[in-house]
Amino acid sequence: MEPLNCVADVKDDRCEIWGPIQGPDWIQGDIARALSLPMEKVAVKHDFPLEEVSDEKAFTDYPYEAVMISKQIKAPVQVVWTP
Q1: Of 15, 25, 71, 83, which one has the greatest count of Cβ atoms within 10 A?
Q2: Beta strands across the sheet bearing 42-46
Q3: Domain count of the chain?
Q4: 57 within 8 A of 4, measured Cβ to Cβ
């Protein structure tokens, strides 16, 4: 089973997020609001989840955590939530 995971790289003027994200446009809007950035400055690079569609991958909490840590430490970060 694939754990929830996300890589985020937050810069002053943009943000990139990678992961098995089910609702990329929803997460893009949520992160853009959280960082006070225009939506076009938030890139969500998603791949298809390895397992069946999961409701957990539709939530913004694990990408949000990666984004906030990356913003704080000013470096790319990967967050992995194990079951």
Answers
A1: 15
A2: 42-46, 15-19, 4-10, 77-81
A3: 1
A4: yes
State which residues form the domain around 32. Answer: 4-81
Tell me the C-alpha to C-alpha distance, in Å, between residue 4 and each of 14, 17, 20: 23, 13, 8
Name residue 25's amino acid: D
What are the tens digits of pLDDT across the range 23-78?
888 899 999 999 999 999 999 998 765 555 555 555 678 899 999 999 999 999 99
Describe the crossing of helices 24-35 and 61-73 by its angle, rounded to 10 degrees.
40
Find the CATH number of the domain harbouring 39.
Answer: 3.30.365.10
Q: Hey, what amino acid is at 32?
A: A
What is the sign, positive or negative, of the torsion defined by CA atoms of 51, 55, 57, 58?
Answer: positive
